[in-house]
Every structure is written in C-alpha cells, then in structure tokens.
Design brief:
3 copies of one chain form a homotrimer. By secondary structure, the first copy, chain A, is of the alpha/beta class. Helices cover about 40% and strands about 15% of the residues of chain A. A 5-stranded parallel β-sheet of chain A has the order 7-6-5-8-9, covered by helices on one side. The first copy, chain A, has a 4-stranded parallel β-sheet with strand order 2-1-3-4, with helices on both faces. At the A-C interface, β2 and α3 of A face α2 and α11 of C.
C-alpha cells in the first residue's frame, strides 16, 4: 500500500483485510502485549496544520508502538512565520528523513499534493471537508467488533453531512462493506447528489436503524447551530427510546453535548464512542504498518 | 500504589520507602547506568493544563528513562478550542491508550476528578493551591541525602504559604517524617488553622532553623509582592549570616530573585536548589514505577 | 570534543574528519541501516528560544537516531512566563538531566553562556547574527559529496552577509578547507573587514564561480527587501545561464522565492538545496556523537 489519501483506493476485500488486521492489533493491545517494532529506524512525520488532539496523539502513539521515530510539526512555531511556502516546508521535512507523513490541513487535497511533491507514503489525517480515511476505518472496526458482520446493517448518518470530512470517507467505506445508508439532515446539509437514501425527518427514520452515526456540527467550517436543528435532530432520550433495542450510537468526536447529542445519551451504554477512540490507535497502526513497509 | 493524588495517601513508612527508592535511582543515574525499562510498552500521558517547564520535562524524562511511551497534551493546540469538555478530553486520551496520567491544572481537585472519570493511575502534577505531591517528595529526598536523617530537623517554611500548593504537600510530608515545622509569613499568608508553630518574624526564628524553605510569591494566584515583604522576609546575606552554620536553603523554583531570595544567596553554597531539581527525575521515576506497575 | 560553539574551534584536519564521518553516516542512512545507539540513556535537550522547524527537527531526529532521549523546550509555554531568568531556566534543565544542550537564541553568545553556566556540552544551533556551525558543516558535507574535493573551489557568498549567522560560520569553514571565497552583496551588506575578495557586482563575478551560495534576506534581523536588490542580486534564469556548466547553487533555507532566488531556479537541477537538508541529520549525528561521548 502506497499511502492512504482516500478510502476510495481500497476495494471491499482490502477494506475487510485492513479492518481485521486492526481488530487483531486491538486484541494484542488489550492483552498488554507489544507489537513487533516493524518500523524501527523509520521516521513518521506528523504534519498537523490544523489543531488536533485526538487524531494527532493517536497517530503518534500508533507510530511509537511500531517502533518508529516520530517528528511532530507544530505549525504555530514553524518556519511558516518566515514566509516559506507549504511545499518548501514539506520538502524540507521529507529531506530531513521522514519515511511516512501524516497530513491534516484545512484545505482539501493538501495530502494528495504532499504525496506528489515528496513521493513519500502519505496518510490523510483529514483535509478540509473532503476525507478523513482513518476515522472511517476505525468506525468500521468498531462496527465489526460489535456486530461481527457488516452485510445489511442499516446506518443513519445524521447531521452536518455537507461540511463533514468524516462523512466523505465514511459513506464509501460503509457502502463498500455492504451496509445500507440513510443520510438524515436538514435540507441544506444533505449532499447535493448521492446514490443513498436521504431524509429530513430523523424521527421517521430512527426506529429502522441499527446504527445512529451522529456528526458534529462543524461551526469552524460554516455549520450553524440553530434551535430548529437541536429540536429536530438532537439525539436525546426520547429519540433513544425509539431506537431499535440493539441499535448503537457512534460519534467521531469531539462531541458538542447539548447540540447533536444530549448529555445523558452521550453517557448511555448504547454509545460506542469510547470504543471508537480505543480502535483509533490499532487502526492507525495497521495503516502505518501497511504504508511504512513499502514506502 | 494506585496513583498519587495527595501525599496524605502515604503513611510514614510508605514515605520513607519511596524516598529511599528515589534516592537509589538517583545513585544509579549518577553512575551513568540505565534503569530497567519496566514501563516498556506502557503509555504515560502528560496533561499540563497550566504552563510548566521543570515539572513537565522532569516527568517526561522520568517516563522515558523507564521505557514508557510519552504523550504530551499541549493545551494551546488541543480540542479545547472546539468546545469539548475537560472530562471528554480526558476520557478520549484514556481511550487512546494512556496507562498513567500526570495532571496539572489551575483548579484544585482536577487530578482527583480525572482519576474518578478514567479509573486510571493519576499522578497529581500540581492542582490549584492544593497539592504538589512529587515536589514534596523530592524535597524530602533532598533533605534525606543531605542530613541522612529526618527526626527533629527544624524546618521553617517561609513566604506565601496561603497560595502555595507546594506547602499543601510539604507540610504533611515533613511532619509525618518527624520534622519540626514553623510557618513564617506575614499575617495574611499564614494558614488559618495549623497544628504547627507560626511566626510573623523571620528574624526571630531564623537562627533556630536547620532548613529555610522559601516559597515563591505566587503572583499568578493572588500573591502580591510588596516592599514590606521584601524587607521583612527576603533571604539576603544578612539573614543568611544569622542562620545556623549547618542550615540549608531550599526553594521549589522558579525563583523570583530579588523578591523572596537575593541574588547572592541564590548562588550560595548553602542552597540545595540544584539538588532539588536533580532529585526530581528519580523521584518521579520512583512514583511512576510504583503506579505504572499496578494500574 | 567538548561542545560546538563556534566553527573556529575546529582546525582543518578536524573539519575534514567530521565531514567524512557525517558523509559516512549519510551513506548508512541511505542504505536504510540504523546507527548504533551510542547515546542510549543520555539526554539531549533542544532549547530553541527562536522559532525553528528545520534545525529543531533535524537535531531531534539526529539525537533519536543515536538512541538519546530528547527534551524539547517550547519557549512559548515555559516558565519564562513566570519571570525566571534565562540562566535559571538553563540550570534547571541541566539539573533535570540533560547531557548535551542544543541552543538557538536571538542574541549572540547565548550558547557560550549556557556552556559556562552549566559546564555541559553545548551545540550552537544559531545565535543572533553570529554563528550557525552545523549549517556550515552540512554545507561542507554537501560540497564534499558533490565535488569530492575542496581545494580551490570558487565560492560566491551572495546576499545579506551582514545579518547572516550562516555566513559567520560558513566563511571560516570554507576558507579553512582551502576554498576561494568572494563576498557578493550591495555595499551595506558586505562585511566591514574581511580578508576575502568582495564585490558589489554579481553579474561580473558569476561566470567565475563553482558554487553560488545564496543567503536569505533576514527581514527579521534588519534586512530589507528592495527592488534594487532583486534586480541586481536575484539568481534568476538569466544569471543561471551565465554560470559555469558545472557550478551549483546552495541556500540554507528557508528560501524567499522571488527575492534572492527565482521560482524556476529554485527548482533547477543545479540546486543542491535538498541535498543540504538531507545532510543535516547525519552532520548533526556526527556532532552529537562527538560531543555526547565525552561530556
């Protein structure tokens, strides 16, 4: 595997293999065992041009658990302040000795550009409103470990789909794995074109779902929190009560409690949010291992 | 040992054992030997929600010398900016894979809350004006290595006791180890209730002390530097000259030179300040080792 | 070797030895092999009191490839905000357990002061407009690997020489290695006194050079970008066409494209800029290895 810029690079079989490998690494971590240091002597550079806690630390620990050296670029103290172009900064870090780059950027397509500029293995850590491939993979790992199958799972993707890079990766992944998707959002937040079912009425849809996947309202990318959104789309205990008995809740975090999810539902045993985060490091280990060996 | 939130968790025997272990690790470091990597594969997360150099780097090096992976949360670039609650941030980092958390926060009780939220081993790295347990332990290690006994040592704690978390941990530690404490401060900075002797007259007390422990005026926590404080409480060469011949000076740092201590006294051979810092890493290694094994 | 504060500490033979060692480490890295962890258990502290990407990450990876623990001081979140003096901060980090310090500071002479205060091995990572020793060494490594000899190479140092610490180290290094130097700059940017040839006319000089070493206009240190400078000194394709056929271009980075170098020339195959960066880590490994063993 040469980098991971988009989940569209992975066919259904590759997706399933990657998910099972990640799940196996999760088991190994749960047993308190160390992974073989297969990236020993290699260098993973974390280039987070947007603030991030969970994704950056998750990649960092994943790389360390594989034995890699980790370099972290802190954009606030970088040469950007000396007027260097993004391309020159990235080429410099490549020349310093990075073997793999993890790139997050506010603009769509930057990870792709970094891969073209450097020829290195690049993992997309989230670009603009475009994609966030490892988030979609870890979500699939979470569903796999919970349901032990994918076929026909009915997933409702609820919320600010238009501004969400999570959705950009999640929709193709879940769809290729054989799940049945419904986009649920106010009119303006539904994708313009989609082969999947859409709905503006969460209450009508919710009893039919196995998975309620809530998206964060992306206020930093133009999403706006309104009383009408909260009233019609917040997952609160009334809506939770109408969910199927085995249905679960996912959210990519960080959660806006009181917006897309109520406080008590965030704490509910139906939420797999903590499982999602737990599966982040093993999923990223599986990805870094796959791209770090060949690059 | 399940975390270290307060020194009050440690009885006199446990304190003495911990201090001797830390001193042994200090010897090992001084001989240029490596500690066994007993925390290999484990992850220590440094959550410093307040700026810190010495304590953060000291914990970081301690964890690395034990073979642990270290994750450092930089509050300035964290998801806090996306409006996530402290509890959600902490639960996320726990789920990423932290085995031990070191927590510093401007508010009292946050390390305790983190321990309750996560169930992890938490080491208090300083909370509000409450406690700073590893500082008190490393101070005790420093006194142990210097005097080779504790019983009856006469210690004067001088300065902004009211706003000091160092005092909050130091007083119970030194007292449990059998030392004789005097609190020396202007009226407003003395603790409201204390079983220990108090004084507002440093000059009267100073000849009787074996240890003069100076506290930093905590301007960031409401302490105010006044000419009257400097005149009556600064340890300058005149007061140094009136100290007992074998008496020593401690300060937790960073020092406000020209406030609680004069420039020349800060440089005096009677000061054990550098020894205190040197004992920081081995003390934190002893603590992390104790809590990291069981967690 | 006890630290590296100035290249003037190194005679011609020591320079040649260091350069060959660095080049050998570069070969080892290119073969994908690991260096022996000769600094295992030792601690390298990176004290960058000025923002830096390339130099900081380069030293960090160099130290890690030698097996050292790395502590990085982030000046923005340090105790400097509590009013501690630079000397106290540095002494504290030494006492925490640094064996080697890499120091960058806006003021000339700070690395020297740090060495005097701490007695540790200190590597100058760039001080004011004074020196930047490892930059000069890696430049020499780059020339060595390209030309396979030094004697008589005609090097033109072009640009803001007056404000450049790179020049401060480069001139003595290249000169001791037997190269023939010409300083090329507008009147105000030429050094006041120099034993080397000077010129204010790049076009007159350029056909005679084997190496065109471009300096960045140091706007942050008083350098001013003018149309006249760009017109008379920018290396553009017209000037490139007049360079000798085997002549090469170096630049310490970050490049101000459109100022001292045009966009297309920056991309030219005659540029060794990427090679310079690639030689940074092995050069710093050679230096850290030399100073870390003895300190």
């Amino acid at each position: 595997m040469k980098g991971l810029l988009s989940v569209r690079e992975l066919g259904p079989d590759e997706l399933r293999t990657m998910i099972k490998e990640a799940s196996g690494i999760r088991d190994l971590i749960d047993r308190g065992e160390d992974h073989e240091p297969v990236l020993q002597g290699r260098c993973v550079a974390n280039l987070f041009f947007e603030p991030s806690t969970r994704t950056r630390l998750s990649f960092e620990l994943a790389a360390k658990r594989l034995g890699a050296h980790v370099l972290t670029l802190n954009p606030a103290t970088s040469s950007g302040s000396k007027g260097e172009s993004l391309r020159d900064t990235v080429l410099t870090i490549a020349a310093i000795g990075a073997d793999v780059m993890v790139v997050r950027h506010v603009d769509q397509g930057v990870p792709q550009s970094v891969a073209e500029w450097t020829g290195l293995a690049v993992v997309n850590g989230g670009d603009g409103t475009h994609e966030h491939p490892t988030q979609a993979l870890l979500d699939a790992v979470t569903l796999w470990r919970h349901f032990e199958h994918f076929d026909g799972l009915r997933v409702g993707l609820v919320g600010d789909i238009a501004h969400s890079r999570v959705a950009g990766s999640l929709v193709p992944v879940l769809s290729r794995l054989g799940m049945d998707l419904t986009m649920v959002a106010p009119e303006g937040w539904l994708p313009a074109e989609t082969p999947h079912r859409t709905s503006t009425d969460l209450d009508a849809v919710i009893p039919e779902l196995d998975v309620v996947y809530l998206l964060r309202v992306q206020t930093e990318r133009g999403g706006r929190i309104t009383d009408s959104y909260i009233g019609n789309f917040q997952l609160d205990e009334h809506r939770l009560a109408r969910m199927s008995q085995d249905a679960v809740i996912l959210h990519p975090g960080p959660m806006n409690r009181g917006v897309e999810i109520s406080d008590d539902v965030a704490e509910s045993s139906r939420s797999l949010v903590t499982e999602q985060v737990r599966n982040g490091v093993p999923t990223r280990m599986a990805v870094l291992r796959a791209v770090g060996w060949r690059s």
